[in-house]
Amino acid sequence: MKQSKLPALRWSVILGLALVSLVVFLVLRESQSHDDLSPEAYDFAVADTAAIDRIVLWNRSPDTALLTRESGVWLINGAHPVRPDAIEVLLETLYRVRLRGFAPDAATANILSAMSTYGTHVDVFAGDQNLKSFTVGTETPDMLGTYFLRDGFGRPVAVHIPGFNGFLSSRFFLREDLWRHRILWSSNEPVTSIQLRFADSTAASFSLREQGGSWTLEQNGKKSPADGMAVQALLKAVASSQYEGVVIPSDLAYAKQDSLKALEPRIRVDVLRADGSRNHLELYHVPPDPEAMTEDGTPLEFDPNRFYGLLDDGRMVLVQRFGLQHLLKSSRALSASR
Question: Is 6 a member of any domain?
Answer without folding.
Answer: no
